[in-house]
Amino acid sequence: MNSFKAFYFNIFVILILLVSIGTLGCDTPECCGFGCGILGGSSNCGSSGPISLPNPQPPISLPPSPVAKPPYGIAVTTQGDFVVTDFRQDAILYLDQNTGALTILSNASIGTGPNFEFPQNIAVTPNDDFVVTDFALDAIFYVDQFTGDRTIIADQSMGVGPDFVSLEGLAVTTEGDYVVTDLGLGAVILVDQFTGDRTIISDESVGSGPVFVELEGIVVTKNGDFVVTDTGLDAVALVNQFTGQRTVISDSTVGSGPGFIYPQYIALTQDGDFVVADSGLDAVIHVDQVTGDRTIVSDDNTGSGPSFELVLDIAVKLDEDYVVTDLGRGAVILVDQITGNRTIILDDDSGPEPTPIPSPKPEPIQDPVPDASVTAPVLLIPIGNEIIQQNNSDIGCSFDLFRGFGYEVFFNWTDSGSPNGIKGYHLLVIQSNAIFPLLDIYVLESEFTFTSCNSFVIDNNLEGWMWSVQAEDYFGILSPISEDVFRFGPCRLSNSDNCSAPF
User: Fold this and answer.
1) 103 close to 94: Cβ distance less than 8 angstroms
2) What percent helix, strand, coil does the chain show, rounded to 5?
3) For the chain, which residues score pLDDT lower than 50?
4) What is the 3-state secondary structure (H, E, C) of 166-226?
5) Helix (H) or strand (E) holding 483
6) What is the pLDDT of residues 26-69, one digit of tens each?
7) First-to-last CA distance in the chain?
8) Regarding beta strands 482-488 and 386-388, do their DSSP bridges make them parallel or antiparallel, or are they unpaired?
9) Which residue in 71, 240, 350, 354 has the most C-beta neighbors within 10 A?
């Protein structure tokens, strides 16, 4: 595995979409991860589940992006146009394939119904409406193509069955129902299109075959079975729609070609093969449905045009070329299926700006003060190299014999001020040895709690944890950055691999 493993995982565990945690030499981010193996004591620390991140109050969203339209999920309509999820504006965008005209189809001011909080993946229904997963709400929305009206069709209160924990991939079945991957449950779940009832099709208890580790994307094959990507297995796997049986159809041991490093989302080609966006390779990879052979369609060495920076989702156009979202570039990129040539069709500099949406807080004063001073937040907790206890039994996590309870860090700072009103705060947490930060998120209030159940920091990386906060007002003016350091107490390992019993 390489350091992109947890980078993307935390894009999804808010973020965590951009929380990024490296996992060099590790099997799972929750045990092994703040970049280069900072978490976890060994390279085989197991796979009990993802990092646990509690729902903060109020919900968090991603940090301000350097682009105006950071796309996440993408799908192609029956007319050949594109629909894109935009988590920065909590919106669904409609992009005309011919004119490049960009329209907000649904957001807080367009369409009725509950607002999105983190629209993630999107799929087209048989009647050309849309279904959207919301990572923050653990919900599936139905979105009307004409009005933008939003209806939650499955969440904790809609439909019966297992609650979603960490939604990832989304597809529409041949019968018009919905199928999702849930990273937290390690399961493929069928969702009834009418009732929202949820049924586990495949997990460690349902179906045979290799157990899922880090489920990501999913597509429905022409015969109604499911094909998923798993970044923990570095594999593409077939899931039988009736039995839940899991069969790896492409990985380092099945099929020839370059091995996956971080296979994100997947799409079905018109001839029944698959194309995968791999953010570890920054490549689009074609996978043969029969042999599992892997061929790079486009990367730095294949095809011309702007390089990928962090490919994420992928869809197949009606003419069989591909469109991908690139989170690093904040762009939608067209990929020629034959040559691999790349063309940006939407980014910060292309297409008209979508209609702005109302801010989640009271509107700022009518006359902006562009040169206003934004006061820097004062960091309160933790400060002065404060020690964070590990294996903490008071954080609400069950005890794991090999990893202990886990740890929790509470970050708190003073409110900033601006004549324009404070929109939110950018919180960054990184360790001196890490490639990627533990947290790189945007929060609305002046506090945040990060809980990581059943994980620990190895002794070599207890020191050197820096955290910083920068405020932003409603007109994008940033405060000075405030920063301080903290450290972790020793994990009290009973040996080089395992955490000891509780304190």
Assistant:
1) yes
2) 5, 40, 60
3) 1-68, 351-368, 370, 493-503
4) CEEEEEECCCCCEEEEECCCCEEEEECCCCCCEEEEECCCCCCCCCCCCEEEEEECCCCCE
5) strand 482-488
6) 332 333 333 322 333 322 232 223 323 333 333 333 333 323 35
7) 32
8) parallel
9) 71
